[in-house]
Amino acid sequence: MTHVTGIGGVFFRAKDPAAMAAWYQRHLGINPTPTSPEDQVWMQAAGPTVFSPFAEDTDYFGPETNQFMINFRVNDLNALVAKLEADGIDIIHREIMDGVGSFAHLFDPEGHKVEIWEPA
Question: What was the pLDDT predicted at 65?
């Protein structure tokens, strides 16, 4: 049986796509979409990826207008949180789940909730 082998992209609407791409590159190290053969696409490390539909009335993603939340896997949550806070980004929630790992939540400049996760 054929099946999907991974996530090939994350696409979402933004009021200012260029500014959003720059924000994600500066703060999370995600290269923007290549515009020439010389540009490097963002390459993620192999690892666990959770695909989980939530109930339509969840408040886990922030305001009810947010229809998705991106979870990024990281290798040093504390170091990234320190960098984000030094850059003036508010971390709105931190949590440790036994056997799962450590989480931190923040919002990007357009109000999309972002979760960063260091697996256990």
Answer: 85
